[in-house]
Amino acid sequence: MSSKTNPCVLLVEDEPAQREILRYNLSAEGYDVALAEDGDVALIMVDELMPDLILLDWMLPGVSGIEICRRIKTRKETRAIPVIMLSARSEELDRVRGLETGADDYVVKPFSVNELMARIRTQLRRTRPASVGQQLEYEDIRLDGESHRVTRADEPVKLGPTEFRLLSTLMEKPGRVWSREQLLDRVWGRDVYVDTRTVDVHVGRLRKALCRAGGEDPVRTVRGTGYALG
């Protein structure tokens, strides 16, 4: 995953031409793309990467897309990851089966790439709103993902790029406790080696910037675990 921490999409597709077309278009949209050609590899990569979204072909060698979806959605650690099922099966019963298995969306092949990208943005708007330019609010703090501006009590807050990504991550799920390792993955990127103490340094900078004009510190330290907003 890149140091810009773009949303990570796991593409599970066994057909080489289709896989390459989707990989190209996903990359062009600014997503970090991980590839899996069969169900067994896909399940391993879900655990290793914890992607932000999964594009999942129904017909796969080994474990089927339906079974992968069922396993993802029955596990507490992965059930919140959006799954978009891709399938040549267009019958209503197949759509119903896919959605009842837990898929968040169901797209029939052949499909419009533009429409698929729109559906991906819709799912990410729900789970990673700042990454698709949405505004986030928590108490008197407002973060604009598109203009990269932050205000508190309508006063501008000056943040560096790392502190901005850190705040957007915390604001996407107020109350959620993020471990230092999870923040490293989300804010710095999975392929960047940074010591966990670096997280503490940047949280300190974020707190200082948010409280510069007064107001209580909104970032809570959870001893032995990490940080949360509120």
Q: In brief, what are we looking at here?
A:
The protein is α/β, with parallel strands linked by helices. The protein has helices at residues 16-28, 39-49, 65-74, 92-100, 113-127, 161-172, 180-188, 197-210; strands at residues 8-12, 32-36, 53-57, 83-87, 105-108, 135-138, 141-144, 149-152, 155-157, 178-179, 219-222, 226-229. The protein has two domains: 8-127, Response regulator (Rossmann fold), CATH 3.40.50; 132-229, Arc Repressor Mutant, subunit A (Orthogonal Bundle).
Write up this protein.
- It is a single chain.
- The protein is built from 8 helices and 12 strands.
- It is of the alpha/beta class.
- The strands form 3 sheets. It has a 5-stranded parallel β-sheet with strand order 2-1-3-4-5, sandwiched between helices.
- The protein folds into 2 domains: 8-127, Rossmann fold (3-Layer(aba) Sandwich); 132-229, Arc Repressor Mutant, subunit A.
- The model has no long low-confidence stretch (mean pLDDT 87).
Number of domains: 2
- Give the second-level CATH assignment, the architecture of the largest domain: 3-Layer(aba) Sandwich
Order of strands across the biggest sheet? 2-1-3-4-5
| Mean pLDDT level | 87
Comma- or semicolon-separated keywords:
230 residues, Rossmann fold, Arc Repressor Mutant, subunit A, 2 domains, five-stranded parallel β-sheet, 8 helices, 21% strand
